[in-house]
Here is the input.
Amino acid sequence: MSIISFYKNGEVIAIGTILVSTGSYVPEQRLTNSQLTEMVETSDEWIVQRTGIRERRIASNMQTSELAIPAAQRALEDGGVSAQELDLIIACTATPDSYTPSLACRVQAAIGADNAFAFDASAACSGFVYATDIVDSYFRAGKAKTALVVCAETLSRLVDFTDRTVCCLFGDGAGAAVFRWSETEEGILQTVMGADGTRGDALLAKALPVEDALNGDRTYSHTDRFLHMNGKEVFRFAARTVPDAIDRVLNKAGMTADEIDWVVPHQANLRIIDVICRRYGLKKEQVYVNLDRFGNTSSASVPICLDEMRQKGLLKRGQRAIFVGFGGGLTYGAILLRI
Ligand code: UT7
Here is the structure.
């Protein structure tokens, strides 16, 4: 991908994938650190010091689509975009309502996006950056012009609330963004995506177990049912790959960190965010953080941040931002764009 421009009638014309609007939806129910201390042997101090998380939302008795649909509708409303204008919908979730139809097709049906093709992209916590990169690629190939990315998670359904190593970390929520191909603005400048499948077991949430369907015992074991994470290994992976992805995306764009206004990282752990701040000499105010209120909402975390930033008027036209994802797969990715 090359940055920016081509010539038309002797003039430099900017083209690119622009972020049009955002939306989000989180369930009402809060689960505080103090409530968790009544469920497992932990403390508010441990959770805050090791992660920065103070509370998270829980979607009790809700399907993931019930979060995704309002987030998508809010993103359309925010941009004054009609569902009919969408020609592509990509959804990301590790907790789909069903293997089929996909979450993207459920959203498509609910919002009435009759002209869109729709599918799910599976990249766990990197889902939003992967899906945005796919949108950008479709746009550049001339195969779509207006797209919705919607990321929604009900990770509480995968969490064992007797396992303190994971139950303090994750929360439920949904975020969405509308992108449009522009023939006057740059939008996305560069992207970098990566994966290391050899480390996949470090964050494992199994689907259907392997079994002898005709003759076997078909009960799920504990290992099959819940999410398991080797936190230290994922932390080390993030501390290595995230700065590397930021370096590479800046290099590809011929920019330096001091030209960046915002970094919007996946909200997993404040200590990982501190690593990014120190490495690039970023002020704390340049890195958006809301994990204290929502915990780790996997693929939804970056678009929920973006929606909050837009609602607060923090994202200004012309600013440059880097979105960063990392997590299950293991996967990572960074997107550099001009707002
Ligand atoms: O979105 C996907 C991406 N995921 C991530 O990025 C997660 C990255 N990893 C992390 O955020 C951190 O590794 C964790 C927050 C998960 C854990 O922090 P840590 O500093 O790596 O702690 P640890 O796993 O090394 O555990 C240290 C101690 C252990 O006790 P011992 O063995 O030292 O006696 C744990 O058993 O803390 C104990 N521990 C807890 N204590 C109180 C683990 N969980 C808890 C807890 N409350 N909730």
